[in-house]
Amino acid sequence: MMLTGKNAIIYGAGGSIGGAVARAFAREGAKVHLTGRTREPLDRLAAEIREAGGAAETALVDAMDPARVGEHARSVFEADGRLDISMSVVGIDDVQGTPLTEMAWEDFSAPVVNALRSTFVTATAAARLMIGQGSGVILTFGGYGPPTAGLGGLQVAFQTQDSLRSVLAAELGPHGIRVVTLQTGGITETLPADFEHAAAVTEAIDGATLLGRAATLADVGNVAAFAASDLASSITAAALNITCGSVADH
């Protein structure tokens, strides 16, 4: 197993993407600390992981709150002796479908500020602990792809995360800490069941790929586990492209 003996905190673990990452980490041997703002989905996921033979703990943590994030990360570090992986997959509330010329500043800036704040708060809290042990992996999730109209501040939010990832990687690399982004072109499994345009959005996302399909939740978990493992020890300051070809790297 790729993550045997590793200790991981996942912020936003109650969501579908956070859950996929947590299951993959646990399957590969990591002890996962599941955090979020709502207790029930965290406890349900922890029970599922334990039933499958994995190790999971839960805690209510608001990823926007530096004091609470730092307190929790420190408690994990002190209880288990190390913190190996930190990943934030906190949801970003955004307004889509409205032209920028018709959008209020508050609606445009909200996803940008929230994405940057949650990434900064969780990453730096983990880094302060990882520096002392001389190792660690910080993962972010997003990736913005080609410019697309109608997405409001979402792509700008992902770009700010990517810029922060690069700076963090530069500062933390000398301490043995890697910082990596998982770049997707959209995970169609996460679309709400009652979303009236789900079929059209799925067709658009799938149609833009070279493989004729979007990445699945299982794909996200598998790549996250690899990125967090020692098998990827030479990868940092990079985005791992899991867009199924909708974004071509040059």
UniProtKB/TrEMBL annotation:
Gene3D superfamilies: NAD(P)-binding Rossmann-like Domain
InterPro entries: NAD(P)-bd_dom_sf, SDR_fam
UniProt cross-references to Pfam families, sorted A to Z: adh_short_C2 (PF13561)
Lineage: superkingdom: Bacteria
Endpoints of the signal sequence: none
Keywords for this protein: Oxidoreductase
Record carries keyword Iron-sulfur: no
Protein family membership: Belongs to the short-chain dehydrogenases/reductases (SDR) family.
Alphabetized PANTHER family for the sequence: 5-KETO-D-GLUCONATE 5-REDUCTASE, ALCOHOL DEHYDROGENASE, PUTATIVE (AFU_ORTHOLOGUE AFUA_3G03445)-RELATED
Protein name per its UniProtKB record: SDR family oxidoreductase
Species name: Actinocorallia longicatena
